[in-house]
Amino acid sequence: MLTAPTLLRERFAEDLSIGELAQVAGCSRYVLYRCFRTAYGFAPSEYQRDLRLRRARALLAGGTAPSSTAAETGFADQAHLTSYFTHTYGMTPSAYRTAAHGGQAHVRPISVITGDPRPTSGAT
């Protein structure tokens, strides 16, 4: 049986509405939102954005250009990717791509849920 989280994982790059997710879950949009937040700690849209950012990070580490990464991961454009990526990881997608290929940069892990920096050794 297909669940809302499974649908999001399989189709994270697509624009899925809360209505589509609720239909898959067999409940109303409001029930889905409340249950999702209770079970996962955040809204379906935040979960989808986290999936997109994780895939973007992998693509960038593999050398994919930020503009292509934005398109492949479902962000409206490179500016949206850059905004969310920078807020989440503390550096731009281009800087991350450079760092992944031997350049110097420090990735600051941030909790997607709270936005608080996680303690890291040597963080500046």
Main attributes?
124 residues, mainly alpha, 0% strand, elongated
Report on this model:
With 124 residues, the chain is mainly α. Helix content is 59%, strand content 0%. The chain has helices spanning 4-10, 18-25, 29-40, 44-61, 66-73, 78-89, 93-100. The longest helix has 18 residues, at 44-61. The chain is elongated and about 50 Å long.
SSE layout and pairing:
Elements: H1 4-10, H2 18-25, H3 29-40, H4 44-61, H5 66-73, H6 78-89, H7 93-100
What would a concise description of this structure say?
With 124 residues, the protein is mainly α. The protein has helices at 4-10, 18-25, 29-40, 44-61, 66-73, 78-89, 93-100. It is elongated and about 50 Å long.
Rg over CA atoms, rounded to whole Å, is 16 Å
**Largest sheet, if any?**
none
- Describe the global form: elongated
Q: What's the total helix number?
A: 7
Structural class: mainly alpha
Number of strands: 0
- End-to-end Cα distance, whole Å, is 46 Å
Q: Regions with pLDDT < 50 over 5+ consecutive residues? A: 116-124
* Beta-strand residue percentage: under 5%
The H-and-E topology, N to C, reads as: HHHHHHH
Helix content: 55-70%
Mean pLDDT: 86
